[in-house]
Amino acid sequence: MTNPFSRHPSLVVRHALAIATEAHDGQVRRYTHEPFVSHPIAVANTVAPFHGDPLVLAAALLHDVVEDTPVTAADLAREMPSSVVRMVLSLTNPSTPADGERASRKRIDHDHVARAEPRAQTIKYADVLHNVQSIARHDPDFAPTYLAEKISLIGRLDRGHPVLRRRVWHCLVELTAGPF
């Protein structure tokens, strides 16, 4: 995958890429087994035309580190501006298995991101776009459940970039109609 962020003019973007690359080292994407860091890079690539702000791109690159790696919010706060950390935390699912079955956990997670600032919701749109395409292609048994959850989520997120929101919405509608 082409990675324009390794030579990005912003130090915060390059540093976010380095943190994401190190934090996700050894992790692979389910189904494709490509290095996991390809996902946050794809999310940042999708966000870039809508929000070229280096702080938003850094948050896009880091959006999964607190949720999916040993990196903590405190670790991130030592390395990144507070606005980046706030965006990442607003995109980090707060639910735990103790919160009950999947539907209950998703309600908690969706309520959390629905309160996120517009820039973070734009990142979430790009995250959903990348994930739904992969799941629809590689896991036809789980896709209907996952797509329904994401339709519910995107229906609640209305503060991010409207063009990207429409793009993810149209993708969800097309994938829902497709064969699994």
Features of the shown structure:
180 residues; single chain; Hypothetical protein af1432
Total discrete domains = 1
Report the uncertain regions: none
Radius of gyration over C-alpha positions, nearest whole angstrom: 16 Å
Spell out the helices and strands N to C. HHHHHHHHHH
Overall CATH class: Mainly Alpha
Helix content: 55-70%
Largest sheet: none
In CATH terms, what is the fold-level topology? Hypothetical protein af1432
Number of helices: 10
What can you see in these coordinates?
The chain is an all-alpha fold. It has one domain (4-177): Orthogonal Bundle (Hypothetical protein af1432). It has helices at 11-23, 38-47, 54-62, 65-68, 73-79, 82-90, 102-114, 118-138, 143-156, 162-177. Helix 3 crosses helix 6 (82-90). The longest helix is centred in the last third of the chain and has 21 residues, at 118-138. It comes from Guyparkeria halophila. Residues 32-141 form the HD/PDEase domain. This is HD domain-containing protein.
Short structural summary:
By secondary structure, the chain is mostly helical.
Ordered list of secondary-structure elements with their pairings:
Layout: H1 11-23, H2 38-47, H3 54-62, H4 65-68, H5 73-79, H6 82-90, H7 102-114, H8 118-138, H9 143-156, H10 162-177
